[in-house]
TrEMBL record:
Database matches in InterPro entries: IsoCit/isopropylmalate_DH_CS, IsoPropMal-DH-like_dom, Isopropylmalate_DH
Isopropylmalate dehydrogenase-like domain location: 6-362
Names of the cofactor(s): Mn(2+); Mg(2+)
Protein name: 3-isopropylmalate dehydrogenase
Keywords: Amino-acid biosynthesis, Branched-chain amino acid biosynthesis, Cytoplasm, Leucine biosynthesis, Magnesium, Manganese, Metal-binding, NAD, Oxidoreductase
Record bears the keyword tRNA processing: no
Catalysed reactions listed for this entry: (2R,3S)-3-isopropylmalate + NAD(+) = 4-methyl-2-oxopentanoate + CO2 + NADH
Signal peptide: none
EC category: oxidoreductase
Organism: Hwanghaeella grinnelliae
Length: 371
């Protein structure tokens, strides 16, 4: 059936293709049971693209990503690619997608499901009912700042530079996303930087404060916090947070910390969003927070829930299919409540399943809900 909803699926490397396979099952289910169909195109990215084309993403695939309503991304990378040239290593494909699609707002929700309270390394009372949203700036900062790279000083000393760089507009636009999103949640934002040691931190804090005082966000409670303290507070008392907005590098690290509040990195989805255009559309890429997990790849051990929950975010943010997104999230929760677990979230008395069995169990729960 023809559809005006286009998806580009980029499974990538390692466990990327394994977890994307489980999304295909949900796509089939939606087509059959909900009469919602997508035009799905597939492409290569990361090491898979390098093996075929000697580049981490081809210009054609890049164009497909620009044209799609949403991109579903698995994961990239692996030890066999670690010594490749900088511009062709797998991670370069992901960074190119983020930069050229201008996906500046990366939403990384960390929600602790009751069924997984025993999977976290933290005490139950610390994490029960946790629902926080980390918004990571994704297209600037030290990931993209110039100059960067090796230099040789006049006395022959070698040094290497990365540059942290932010314009005011780059800080403002991601902060606006954070304030707007907070308004639909708990109306509280923690802005995180290191204004005590970094000039960009001072600028970040000042810009966020100015925007907050502009009169548009009087209903939002704003707090400033240093990034090192934030890492500690996330483990000490994560429920003090509602929305955290932070730069590219701090957001990368803090979201991996937040993953363990939910039980596993295999549980954390994400949405990377661009600006809303004149037609109300925005470019978007959805991916689990985890990587290609070379240590478990090819063994059917990966937890596909981060990928499936990323697909739920796709339904919610790119296609306004709120009911379907709810169904998928509820199905994932129900499977966990039945004690079905992949190895990363295994607990005593639970049933250990493979990646494919977890995907099947989610589809079974979807069936029950749609009946
Ligand atoms: N978005 C991405 O594509 C992305 C993100 C992070 C890392 N990477 C790349 O992935 C490769 C491996 O990096 P890493 O080991 O630091 O991080 P990783 O996220 O791949 O793995 C970290 C640990 O978490 C486990 N894990 C991750 N996802 C899981 C899942 N779904 N189910 C069960 N266990 C899971 C892994 O087995 C591993 O022990 C590197 O090449 C890195 O650059 C890619
Ligand atoms: C693979 C890598 C480029 C990426 C990042 O550092 O942004 C990853 O760690 C992530 O969290 O998405
Ligand atoms: Mg990361």
């Amino acid at each position: 059936m023809a559809s005006n909803k286009s998806l580009l699926m980029l499974p990538g490397d390692g466990i990327g293709p394994e977890v994307c396979q489980e999304v295909r099952k949900v796509l089939d289910w939606m087509d059959k049971r909900r009469a919602v169909s997508f035009d799905v195109k597939e492409g290569l990215v990361g090491g898979a693209a390098y093996d075929a084309h000697k580049t981490a993403i081809t210009d054609e695939t890049m164009q497909d990503a620009m044209d799609a309503d949403a991109v579903l991304f698995g994961a990239v990378g692996g030890p066999q690619y670690d010594n490749l040239g900088w511009d062709v290593r797998p991670e370069a494909g992901l960074l190119r997608l983020r930069k050229e699609m201008d996906l500046f707002a990366n939403l990384r929700p960390a929600v602790t499901f009751d069924a997984l309270l025993d999977a976290s390394t933290l005490k139950q009372e610390v994490i029960q009912g946790l629902d926080i949203m980390i918004i990571r700036e994704l297209t600037a900062g030290v990931y993209f700042g110039e100059p960067r790279g090796m230099q040789t000083l006049p006395d022959g000393t070698e040094r290497c530079i990365d540059t942290q760089s932010y314009t005011k507009a780059e800080i403002e636009r991601v902060t606006e996303v954070a304030f707007d999103l907070a308004r639909k949640r708990g109306s509280k934002v923690h802005s995180v930087e290191k204004a005590n040691v970094m000039k960009t931190g001072v600028f970040w804090r000042q810009t966020v404060s100015e925007l907050h005082k502009s009169g548009k966000y009087d209903d939002i409670e704003l707090h400033h916090m240093y990034a090192d303290n934030c890492g500690m507070q996330l483990v000490r008392n994560p429920k003090q947070f509602d929305v955290i907005v932070t730069d590219n590098l701090f957001g990368d690290m803090l979201s991996d910390v937040a993953a363990m509040l939910t039980g596993s990195l295999g549980m954390l989805p994400s949405a990377s969003l661009g600006a809303v255009d004149e037609f109300g559309r925005r470019k978007a890429l959805y991916e689990p927070v985890h990587g290609s997990a070379p240590d478990i790849a090819g063994q059917g051990m990966a937890n596909p829930l981060a990928m499936l929950l990323s697909f739920a975010m796709t339904l919610r943010y790119s296609f306004d299919l709120q009911e379907d997104a709810d169904l998928l999230e509820q199905a994932a929760q129900a499977v966990l409540s039945r004690g079905i677990r992949t190895g990363d979230i295994m607990a005593a008395g639970a049933e250990k399943v493979s990646t494919a069995q977890m995907g099947d169990a989610v589809c079974e729960e979807l069936d029950k809900r749609a009946a």
